[in-house]
Amino acid sequence: MTKEEHIRQLMSDPIYAIMGNAELSLGRSNIDAARQLIEAGVTIIQYREKHKTWREKYAEATAIAKLCHDHKVTFIMNDSVDLAIACGADGIHVGQDDAPATVVRRLAGPDVVIGVSTNTIDEMKQALADGADYVGFGPMFPTASKKDAHEVVSDEAKHFALHFSLPVVTIGGISLENIGSLYKEGFRSFAMISAIVGKEDMTAAVQELRNALKA
Ligand code: 3NM
User: Fold this and answer.
1) Tens of pLDDT, residue by residue, the chain (215 residues)
2) Which of this chain's residues are annotated to bind 2-[(2R,5Z)-2-carboxy-4-methylthiazol-5(2H)-ylidene]ethyl phosphate (predicted)?
3) 48 catalytic per annotation
4) Backbone angles phi and psi of 146, in degrees to 5
5) Least CB-packed of 71, 101, 127, 154 within 10 Å?
6) Does an H or E element contain 57, and which?
7) pTM over 0.90, yes/no
8) Cα–Cα–Cα angle for 24, 80, 150, nearest 5°?
9) Does the interface predicted TM-score (ipTM) exceed 0.90?
10) How far is the CA of 191 from the centre of ligand 1 (A)?
């Protein structure tokens, strides 16, 4: 798939699953988690593994990237530009302390999707100026999944995000109980860890989230 097709997928499928760290995934291996996510019909998967060695991550991310490509699933690597390039990821998602999008672009080339985590209006504007393809925006709600998470986004930043020119992927504490409220506010894309890989039956979890968006 081309970069444009991946971005279209990101804009048309509201569910963006983040996997990694077994403790957030009921002890599943990352390969099992990826397989189950694909079976559950997820089309955007981010690999966010904070514990393993480079070689361990390289081995499993390469396998997961192949699985994703075989199923037309967009595969995004968190943080690590070199791993993303090495395993053939479709995209790279960077935080405010990682390489800026300008540098990621220089290293990874024009064909990779770049996402940047943002919490404020200034960070969204900077991500746009730096050539990001989408922004992560959050946390929308308190979350236990990220130790150094910021304060929940301000109403002013939410308003800005709803009119922003780049695709906005909301993140942070999104659940079956609150996803509908974000949808009603106008948000259309939702990245989740605990609400998907934190559930025993991921197929049911994804289906329930999709149903909540239709309700
Ligand atoms: N980034 P859960 S919040 C990885 O605000 C991440 O940028 C965030 O996990 C941000 O869906 C977060 O379990 C954790 O809350 C998301």
Assistant:
1) 999 999 999 999 999 999 998 888 899 999 999 999 999 999 999 999 999 999 999 999 999 999 999 999 999 999 999 999 999 999 999 999 999 999 999 999 999 999 999 999 999 999 999 999 999 999 999 999 998 889 999 999 999 999 999 999 999 999 999 999 999 999 999 999 999 999 999 999 999 999 999 98
2) 143-145, 173, 193-194
3) yes
4) -130, 115
5) 154
6) helix 54-70
7) yes
8) 55
9) yes
10) 8
Active site (annotated) includes residue 214? no
Residue 48: which region, alpha, beta or left (left: phi > 0; alpha: psi -120 to 50)?
A: beta
Other beta carbons within 10 angstroms of residue 12's beta carbon come to 10
d(Cα 210, Cα 137) in Å, to the nearest integer?
A: 20
**Domain around 206:** 3-214
Residue listed under structure tokens 């999008």: 101
Peptide bond into 139 cis (omega under 30): yes
User: How far from the centroid of its chain's Cα atoms is residue 123's Cα?
Assistant: 17
Residue 109 near residue 101 (C-beta atoms within 8 A) = no
Amino acid (one-letter) located at 96: Q
- Please tell me the total count of domains within the chain: 1
CA of 136, closest atom in ligand 1:
7
List 57, 80, 105, 117, catalytic entry: 117
Under 8 Å between Cβ of 37 and 9: no
Query: Pairing relation of β-strands 44-47 and 74-78?
Result: parallel
Is residue 66 marked as binding? no
Using DSSP's 3-state secondary structure scheme, residue 113 falls into strand
Q: Say which amino acid occupies 101.
A: A
> CA 204, CA 56: separation in Å to the nearest integer?
30
